[in-house]
């Protein structure tokens, strides 16, 4: 433990280093880092973060509503599906959430329809089941990135609080009163007494550096959240096309089986 720093401060410093090192690799993404530098230069970091979190909340609401609608439209199918079939549909939905044009998802869907041989009336319910799983996956991904941003912001707030308290503790060391001529001995004594307190400022500077790193990592997390928001908005807009593709594919497979 660093001498001159309270145990609580040292523990927080160690924790901060551990948490932020996990996000350091994000700086290898040139495009994201460029956007971070632009935000820092414009001075709009905090506003941009709050705006992104607000849009994430709106997107989560949209996904929740879409998921509930899909659940209602597929509820009648639940007793008819085996556990294995439910897992297959869930896997298709998750894959479509990541890649709406996934050939693997399309192939698995065709194989599922060929094996299950659903009636025409069940096809729409199956489609809604897959869509619901896709909405749930998108919600989970969005929540992960939003919580990451919130976690970094919370860590920054705690670091600022510890820095303020540490600065208050070492403040007397930074203010040595003027010494009248002839009082050299008193001046030397004051300087000697101030040295330990000045040394105590080193951990504060270390924490300030960690705060700077935390700020960069928080901004990178915010850019990641912006990216996932853009991707999910595009996927959400494609859901009607995905629904039609699933339905048309299923009906084609059923007609082929029926001869």
Please outline what is shown here.
By secondary structure, the protein is an all-alpha fold. It has helices at residues 7-23, 30-42, 45-74, 83-98, 103-116, 120-170, 184-199, 201-258.
SSE layout and pairings?
Blueprint: H1 7-23, H2 30-42, H3 45-74, H4 83-98, H5 103-116, H6 120-170, H7 184-199, H8 201-258
Approximate helicity band = over 70%
Distance between the termini: 77 Å
Which radius of gyration do the C-alpha atoms yield? 29 Å
How much of the residues is beta strand, in percent?
A: under 5%
Structural notes for this entry:
The chain has helices spanning 7-23, 30-42, 45-74, 83-98, 103-116, 120-170, 184-199, 201-258. The protein is mostly helical. The termini are far apart. It has eight helices and no strands. It is elongated and about 85 Å long.
Keywords:
single chain; 259 residues; mainly alpha; 8 helices; elongated; disordered N terminus
């Amino acid at each position: 433990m660093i001498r001159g720093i309270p145990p609580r401060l040292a523990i927080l410093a160690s924790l901060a280093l551990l948490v932020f090192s996990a996000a350091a690799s994000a700086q290898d993404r040139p495009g994201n880092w460029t956007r971070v530098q632009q935000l820092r230069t414009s001075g709009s970091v905090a506003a941009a973060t709050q705006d992104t979190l607000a849009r994430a909340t709106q997107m989560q609401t949209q996904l929740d509503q879409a998921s509930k609608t899909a659940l209602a439209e597929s509820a009648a199918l639940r007793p008819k599906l085996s556990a294995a079939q439910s897992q297959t549909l869930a896997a298709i939905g998750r894959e479509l959430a990541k890649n709406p044009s996934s050939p693997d998802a399309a192939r698995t869907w065709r194989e599922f329809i060929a094996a299950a041989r659903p009636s025409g009336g069940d096809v729409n319910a199956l489609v809604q089941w897959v869509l619901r799983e896709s909405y749930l996956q998108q919600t989970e991904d969005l929540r992960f990135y939003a919580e990451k941003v919130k976690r970094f912001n919370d860590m920054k707030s705690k670091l600022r609080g510890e820095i303020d308290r540490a600065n208050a503790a070492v403040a007397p060391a930074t203010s040595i009163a003027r010494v009248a001529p002839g009082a050299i001995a008193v001046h030397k004594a004051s300087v000697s007494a101030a040295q330990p307190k000045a040394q105590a400022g080193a951990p504060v500077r270390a924490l300030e550096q960690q705060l700077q790193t935390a700020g960069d990592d928080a901004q990178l997390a915010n850019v990641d959240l912006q990216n996932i928001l853009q991707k999910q908005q595009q996927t959400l807009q494609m859901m009607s096309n995905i629904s039609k593709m699933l339905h048309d594919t299923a009906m084609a497979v059923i007609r082929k089986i029926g001869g």
